[in-house]
Amino acid sequence: MPTLKDVSQKQINAIWLGLQHTNKKTRKKYFPQIEKAVNNGDLSKQQYALMKDRMLIDEGKSQLYGSQIKNGKLYKLDTPNKVNERRKEMGMKPIEQYLKNFNIEFKIE
What is the DSSP letter of 80? Predict the structure, then answer.
């Protein structure tokens, strides 16, 4: 994974986007490099959260940050009552605000 010393922010974001939308095997392979890029400040915590949620879903697990939606529904969420705490740590808006973009109402059951 290149760093911002090697490429522009736009280019590193494009690499992330390609990895986010590739197959689960490739995502899993490169995720440690994504984590390193986030720790270096080359990628955002939000980008980490989006990929982490997608990888958890790939593994049949519940997502942590509530970023993944399919067919107008939020994928299963781990400890929904803690999601906004986790989202805040990643620099993300509250889930209620995010889901309004998809006309989804957030309810903790």
Answer: G
